[in-house]
Amino acid sequence: MSGTRETVYRVYCLWNSACGVIKGSSSIASQSLKSWVSTSTLTRPTLISLQCGNDSNWEQANALANSIREKRSAASNRKHNPKDFVNHNSTRHYSTARSIEKNANDVENQESTNEGKPEMQSSKVPSSRLSRLYHYGSLAANVGVNVAAQSLQEVAKGKSPNWKSLILSDSNIDKITKKFSKMRGAALKIGQMMSFQDENVLPRELYEILSRVQNSANYMPQRQLDRVLSRELGSEWRSKFKRFENIPIAAASIGQVHEAELLNGEKVVVKVQYPGVKESIDSDLSNMLMLLTASSLLPKGLFLDKTIENARRELKWECDYIREANAMKKFGELIKDDPVFEVPKVYDELTTESVLTMQRMEGTEIMKLPSTINQELRNFLGDNVMRLCLQEIATFKFMQTDPNWANFLYNDKTKKIELLDFGAARPYSEKFITNYRKLLTYASKSDYNGVYEISKELGFLNGLESKMMADAHVESITTLCEVFRGEPNVIYSFKDQTVSDRIREKIGLMLNERLCPPPDEVYSLHRKFSGVFLLCTRLNADVHCAKYFQEIFAYK
User: Where is this chain compositionally biased, Polar residues type (predicted)?
Assistant: First the structure.
């Protein structure tokens, strides 16, 4: 009987959450209708265009025409510019979650070898409040109805339904992934950010959604792209380029990337932000928080509300391309004397809050280098990426925090590592950096009391935790810092490291026992730190971790 009551209660919670999102949609629709009634007949067409901004009939009718234009454009590119657009799978000139094939025939030829790989599609970005709320409302209603119906059917059969399995059924996973890919913005970004969580933290089915979302985003049709660029660069924006590729080479959560050539012949990439994404961040995240909280899919130790709040801040940073351009310039200054790293040049005259034009880099993604690269190059890459990460924290107090490995390119001609994507770059306060350096220094010396006390000062612990939780926290940090122990001449091999596995064993306990969320700063810092650690592991690199830690990072 208690199982039945729990099921009914869970169904009620999810349905109530779905109703909340639908109610929000209805409220906005009501406001829009009142505005329409109160306006004159002359201004109503314009008002409707602004309010709805997402004509699905036009979108469907235009899909075939778009595909034909795209294939023609791709064919034209092959005919007239054979050297400019080759090997996009291995060479990166931009930063994104997903590459788009420009050659339609190549896509067809790859179907047999890339089965299951999601096909990129062109679809209009829902840009108005009403259209975005409609999509959230329909998703909430569809998933909620499916779960409620299946749960009650299980109860009627005398079975105890598996709540998470019902929410994350195959049909619901497909609905969620497709909707997030169409919506872009906050929904897609949250999925990509959470996809970097350890697989032991999240349910397997939710991991499937996140992995699909991480590599999935539709791109704007030509009509919408023209509208955005005309608004940002002027109606004659094409005259500012010698060549501009209509079909993007990449599409991610915030915007899409196009290859272009300036009038003076310089090759650039142009990042164009999806319309309405910036304005919808707050409402999108509020809707997601409501649904994720009601579904009870995530462990309480993730402190979802704090995670969402940090995502909100980072998303607003990433939607300001002028901020990103300034971050690129600042980082360029910080590494100007470094012989290994390079940052793209920014073209201010073709950059706005929603359009970012930068130098096209010629390197290849580190993780897409041939598997046959020698150990010397593996060590060079791992050594310098680790060095830079420690410098960003201890010396620069300014970090490019995106953990995506695709943001590190290796240029074999210049022998340099090229850095991309500074949308989430951020500074850290002197106080935080000092305490964080103390934390890792104590951990590198296996100083339990030192780690415990500074963890309370930083906000990782509040002092009321159980002994098991305190031990797990301290042990996980001291385990992580094993790589930094030893004499400066000691080289750490990431090939057979077991640090990740030993930390992973403590995750479940810490999620269940944690009493307070970690400090705001570490959400981004630890994502980057983890990304660098895993990159070195993937490279099987031998790294001078102790040397760099003592020279750059250790608190003295």
Answer: 87-98, 106-127
